[in-house]
Amino acid sequence: xxxxxxxxxxxxxxxxxxxxxxxxxxxxxxxxxxxxxxxxxxxxxxxxxxxxxxxxxxxxxxxxxxxxxxxxxxxxxxxxxxxxxxxxxxxxxxxxxxxxxxxxxxxxxxxxxxxxx
Length: 117
Prior knowledge:
By secondary structure, the protein is mostly helical. The chain is 71% helix and 0% strand. It has one domain.
């Protein structure tokens, strides 16, 4: 059985995230601590990236693409390109990747949707 997915361009969301993240990062630069920067990214930029995605079925490569966006931001923030160190920083700062956040948001959406139907 062939699975069919709705195809849509998600580059606008990624572009919006990068624009918001670079704007925040450019304004506060290295003056603020990593905790402050990551809190701003979590509260202001991640919603731009994930807006409305809980309703779309996503394939693994798409989820990896979202995680890549965050991994690249961490590489820029911590000036390190080693993915293991980036993952360690994400764990230490309790920063969830978009794939994890989307799974949680999708479950909440489906729970609410099932109650309504």
